[in-house]
Amino acid sequence: MKAFVINKYSKKQSLQSVELSLPDIKDNDILVEIHAAGVNVLDSKIKTGEFKLILPYKLPLILGHDAAGVVVRTGKNVKKFKTGDQVYARVSDHRIGTFAQFISVDEKDAAFKPKNLSMEEAASIPLVGLTAWQVLVERGAVKSGQKVFIQAGSGGVGTFALQLAKYLGAEVATTAGALSTELLKKLGADIVIDYKNSDFEKMLSNYDVVLNSQDQKTLEKSMRILKSGGKLISISGPPTPVFAEEIKASWFVKIVLSLLSFSIRKKAKNKNIYYSFLFMRSDGEQLSEITKLIELGIIKPVVDKVFSFENTNEALSYVETGRAKGKVVIKIK
Question: Which residues are in the Enoyl reductase (ER) domain (predicted)?
Answer without folding.
Answer: 13-330
